[in-house]
Amino acid sequence: MLSKENNQNYLELTPACIYGHVVKENGKVSVLVPRFTSKFWGKYLLPIMKNKYIHVKLDELGSETWMMIDGKKNVQQICDFLNGKLGDKIHPAEERITLFLTELYKNKFIKFNELNKN
Predict the structure, then answer these.
(1) pTM of the prediction?
(2) Model confidence over 11-27: pLDDT tens digits?
(3) How many beta carbons lie within 10 A of that of residue 83, not counting itself?
């Protein structure tokens, strides 16, 4: 994910969501990932599809983390807030949250503002 040449501290990076989401009645988040990114496939297949999005369902910890990603808070601020809110459920907070954010980044669900500046 992060190159070795990049000397930025992971906890200082600011994540931002690429996709939208819906919050279910149980408080858990489903991330809305478009089925097709290609205009060609979208034009011909979306009209016959039931839903143009794939719903990626997150668990409680993933949902709480996703809801904190706003493009303004850095990873450390998210960790501190969730550690205070969830306590032992998320211990060790920094390790778990950074692993989760790394997976979101690898799968192109989020971006880091500092890494996308040219």
Answers:
(1) 0.82
(2) 999 999 999 999 999 99
(3) 18
